[in-house]
Design a protein that fits this description.
single chain; about 300 residues; TIM Barrel; six-stranded parallel β-sheet; 10 helices; about 15% strand; metal-binding; hydrolase; hydrolase activity; Esterase
Length: about 300
Amino acid sequence: MKHLRTTLGLKSKSELGMILPHEHVFVDLRTPDQPGYAEANTEDVVRLMAPEIEKIKKLGVTALVECSTGGVGRRADIDLAVSLATDFPIVVPTGNYREPWIPEWVRHASEKQLEAWMLRELTDEIGETGFQAGWIKLSAGDDDMTALETKILRAAARAAAQTGAVIGSHTIKGRVVMDQLDVIEAEGYRADRFISIHTQEEKDFALNVAVAERGAWIEYDHVGRAGDDEVAELVIKALEAGCGDRLLLSHDRGWFDPALPMGGTPKPYTHLSTVLLPELKRRGVDDGTLMRLTHDNPFEAFAR
């Protein structure tokens, strides 16, 4: 039986309902060499972010995927604290972001060392948190992968092949996604265990479809950040193109930012539930399809 690996342990599909596949609880977009990087008082984060979790619990959301990875302030201990305070499972990644958000130790590590690090977090625990990483989050340059980003991807593919974990990548260009899939397959892993994050940023819709037809997940994660008509039209276009079985929807919102006073002002994770889903239904998308997009697909993408 497949499960999500979460802050609250293994969760089966029967224990879950709606899942948000791309959100952030805590992010630091300063580079890791900056003073104060990823530093925050845990109680302050809980105070700011727990109410945002409580809002979506009332809407029937049962889990979310934390997309803050190495290099952009991943704090698995803080994710755990928020999770425990709200009794809400969060899926936390291993992996690392793109240049220049790459710590010196990752820059100098061998592929084998990076593979071993990710494998340990996927199968044992992240640090001393007591819970396993649920997936691997990476990124690539907007126009191409650098040699360092490619090294990280190869290590990730090897760790994923041993665990069944999904690899997700912040990648803007569809052709770069295709290059990433080539690397993953060359390492013996599968295109269907890859998530093309921010697929909407590739404006050539044919490339959205090509990525999905290759087997990868495509993710439209600008709900509430772009115009509702624009997002609804894109989702319906993807459904009409036969991509419904490979489509994920989310906000890419939140979050506590330690670079801002008191963490800044979070943007709610509610727009998908309160605005977009009713709009899609109004436009004729049936309940079964909406259930697949918000319940089935996120579980299938991240479970192993």
